[in-house]
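Batch manifest, entry 17 of 40.
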Amino acid sequence: MRFAVHPLFLLFGVYYAVTGRIFLFLVSTLVAVMHECGHAFAAARYGYRLDKVVLMPYGALISGDIEGIGLKEEIVVALAGPFVNAVTAVLFVALWWFFPETYPYTDVAAYSSAAIAVVNLLPAYPLDGGRVLYCAVAKSKGEKTAGRVARGIGLFFAAALLALFVYGCFISVNFTILFFSAFLFAGALGGRDRSYLRIRTDYSREMKKGLEVRRIAVREDTAVKKLLTFMQRGKYAEFIVYDGKGEYLCELSEEDFTKILEKADLYSPIGAYILQN
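Output type: structure tokens
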């Protein structure tokens, strides 16, 4: 997983620092990362993984390639993020019930979790609610129509927030609404992003043009999960496995490794599956 920071995210952080709410900003960022972890775990169940997380105002975006994922599965992945935040908020409320003295230290995280869960269910792309709307419309009307519907609703919400910001300027300026409006405008005009990278072994199309081979040397006690992080789209991975003394054991092609993934415990050493393979 790679992380990047959008310029608006930094501007948003400066705004919160100047207004004396930097703690709220940091907690909201942590909650947003937890939100993306929910997407990652759900995507992994269908054979996809996060490729790149971009921190944005009011959350984060994940980019990659979801070619081949079903619309039903994409809905599940989209709802996993808000689900994680909702569960987190409920757990904090339960904690206050049993230990009321913890409230002053955890209220910001609880309210931020609940807010991100609710806001992300709005049917405006690129929010998760917008993804669900897109998939639901695409199932019955096709992706072309779904794109127009998602873009139109996203622009509506963005314009409504911009109008609310202008109206609020006559009472009390709230740049938070302006930032969120800009975020939705960018999402609506940017089109459908590709959110997950599929782990696959069929590289026939790429090999026709030439595919770079990436060779990685690992020890037999290296966790399977660690090997997974070396796989990159557009590059063919080959793993050379050595024992604890540096002696050569074997070489695993990407096909061999993906077969191991079907039965492996991600936290077990790769050496436990070499003889089986």
